[in-house]
């Protein structure tokens, strides 16, 4: 996480829809449509929140194929944990991700083949 992202992290956890989306894709990869159905929200709202989560590397899109071999974009959480710590009048934010960059590259490479 970049140092200037801490305010954005606060925004993410301050928004009901974004928290719900993050919790859903943390439990299982989901399409934007499935997220919208579960959140009882519009697709544009879901896509806006997913963009914020992707910008902070909290969610990653990937391509999956369903039973009929149709291509689907699914979203999954990269987040392992977030810790907020108050220290000497400052708020420290520590984000731990599920996967490191080498894992992401390896997944990307597998999808290309």
From TrEMBL:
Annotated CDD domains: HTH_ARSR (cd00090)
Q: Gene3D superfamilies from the entry?
A: Winged helix-like DNA-binding domain superfamily/Winged helix DNA-binding domain
Question: Which Pfam family, an example, fits this chain?
Answer: HTH_20
- Specify the signal sequence span: none
Q: What is this protein called?
A: Winged helix-turn-helix domain-containing protein
Q: Which organism is it from?
A: Halopenitus salinus
